[in-house]
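Lab notebook, bench 4. We co-purified these components, and the gel suggests they stay together. Before we commit to crystallization screens, I want a quick structural picture of the whole thing.
Request: model the full complex, all chains together.
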Amino acid sequence: MPEGPELALAGRYINEACGGLVFSGGAERSAVGRGPEVPFRSEAYRLGAAARGKELRLRLEPLGAGSPQALVFRFGMSGGFRLRPAASPPRHAHLRFLTRESPPRALCFVDARRFGSWRLGDAWQPGRGPCVLSEYQAFRENVLKNLDDKAFDKPICEALLNQKYFNGIGNYLRAEILYRLKIPPFEKARTVLEALKQQEQERRKKNSSLPLSKKLKRDNPDLLELCHTVPMEVVAAEKNLLDPDHADNHTAFKNWLQCYGVPGMSSLRDHNGRTIWFQGEPGPMAPKGQKSRKKHAGPKADPDAPTTEVTTRASKRRSRRAENPATSAMKKEEEEEEEAVPDPPRRGRARARRAAAAAPASPKPEAPVKATRRRASARKGAGAAPAV
DNA sequence: CGTCCACGTCTAC
DNA sequence: TAGACCTGGACGG
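Here is the predicted assembly.
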């Protein structure tokens, strides 16, 4: 679950779970990890982490002599850290740091899809802006001082994924943030942000003549504030357990979502092919010729008797939550498909069909399948060794 | 069994 | 503005 909050939580997890541990040896890399070998070795060292947006920096600090080493990770779609017994590491562990404990444990960078990576050194990726979580003021100023950037010519929902300005915002956060203000996702970014800037200036004037007690309360948070507070909510909601993949966190997270993937909400593909979830009007810059779909309550989540007819209208998980009283959330139903325009320019449909994918059945999922190694047998499947 | 979908970047017609 | 890069879970036949 890697957007800003998950990176922040990973950093906290590492510091809390590993802060008191002593590590030893080198960093063991899997054959297929998307990152370089780590030129570091120490009989006794500590680990410390810090997150910034969608990056996480790990520092390896020798207790005795030796130079420290820093690494900067990106999680891609599926990356994360786990502290596990070294003898039974998770599948897809691509980098491991071993503790000096008697049965040793390993802090593992785990990443099933391998879109994540790491680099040597402590430099953040140039071009990524300040973190929406940990550098709120700098983040806000960076946006408001650069509204002439063509990045803000785009719809607000697309601008929100631009890590030069919104480092840490990802696909679920953009939906949740826009939903809180009911901003149409395809409203032009600059329009939204100029208005916000204007309000800010008016507010400043007034505030200067107000008692301090009135200044402090932000009762109508603007979009940029929500870019900070909404991800902070996720950090708070998932703070439980020192185990990133325990079920409670997942449940808390699903419960927390108000819009992203929630039954009754609408969705569209944006101009980059990413799904944006929203409620209400899509806004003026919405892609043409696309049907905005509404999510029905899924067949799962329906613990009814086998015989019953469907009727599973009501949204499941968000059963309670007295949200959106005003708007007619989901009224008649039936009017699902909700088209927008005919669709003569019916192109772009293609969802990238995997053509390649040689190796119909590679014996070792983790092995560098590389060349056209076709085997007609060897059904590997699960249970494989983690291949580190 | 198969198809579609996924919390993110990258680079190449 | 399409793919490419990957694995795996959900769901359908």
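Residues 1-3, 5-6, 54, 74-78, 113, 115-117, 161, 163, 170-173, 260, 274-275, 351 of chain A lie near DNA strand B (CB under 10 Å from a C1'). Worth comparing against the SEC data before the next meeting. The two ends of chain A are 23 Å apart (CA to CA).
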